[in-house]
Amino acid sequence: MEQLRALAEQSAATQGQANAAPGMDFMLMFNIFIAGYLLYYAIKGTGKVYENDYPPAMKEAHSKFMRKFCWIVGAGMLVFTILEFIQGFGSIWTTISIVYVLGGVVIYFIVFRVRFKQFLKKPGGEIKKK
Fold it and tell me: Whole-model pTM above 0.85?
């Protein structure tokens, strides 16, 4: 009888945790969707993600760079979201997932600005020769 009572209390506590953050299930599913979207475009290599107004000289290099970014961030986001789903929202994986994605985006922009700075100086990507 004691075991049954303990099981009922544990079940009630688990349901209380699940009901404490009902919107978080949506966020986890949304993260999985975004990770799938990134991985889809990483595999495909073409699509809306790769369309831009950059000069022709940098389009191919940027497409390769964007594809690597999609692979790295998409795969990591999927893994961390699954771990977060298993352990529950608010676990250490929630923090790691947020830091990973934000860090990936910041690193992408820094590397993009450094790597393609000669194309971003003047419209058309032409460098002035003195």
Answer: no
